[in-house]
Amino acid sequence: MSQSGRYYVTDPKSGRKFCVEPIGDPHTVWGDINPATKEIEGNYGNKYRCSIDEKESIITEENGYKNIVELKPGESPDSYINNLCK
Predict the structure, then answer these.
(1) Residues 23-74: pLDDT tens digits?
(2) String of b and e for 49-80 (b: at least 16 CB within 10 Å)?
(3) Concatenated DSSP letters for 19-40?
(4) What is this structure's pTM?
(5) Sign of the CA dihedral 66, 2, 9, 72?
(6) Closest CA to 71 of 59, 83, 80, 63
(7) Could you give the CA distance from residue 5 to residue 62 in angstroms, rounded to a whole number?
(8) How far, in Å, are 38, 47, 52, 63, 72 from residue 58 at the CA level?
């Protein structure tokens, strides 16, 4: 998995490769927890956000992707892919 949350899944039976990108909010804010205050301090900026903005997506027809599917919030990409490959 990349720092953005993007990852790839390959179906072992068919060899089909899928790219998954969590898009939109919430972006996770990462930092260090201060043991005294239990608050997050510091900030890793755009690293490890767990999702990307739509304009940062690489999943486009121009990049060679076909059958692009956008799932609703709460739907599991892994479950969707498993169902496609049954």
Answers:
(1) 876 555 555 677 888 776 665 555 555 677 788 889 999 999 999 999 887 8
(2) bebbeeeebebeeeeeeeeeeeeeeeeebeee
(3) EE--BSSPPPP--EE-TTT--E
(4) 0.65
(5) negative
(6) 80
(7) 21
(8) 37, 17, 10, 7, 19
Q: What angle do CA 1, 31, 57 make, to 5 degrees?
A: 35
Q: For residue 33, what are the β-bridge partners?
A: 40
Classify 47 as helix, strand or coil: coil
CB 57 within 8 A of CB 19: no
Nearest to 31 by CA among 42, 39, 22, 21: 42
58: its two tokens: 């690489």
Which DSSP helix (H) or strand (E) runs through 32? strand 32-33
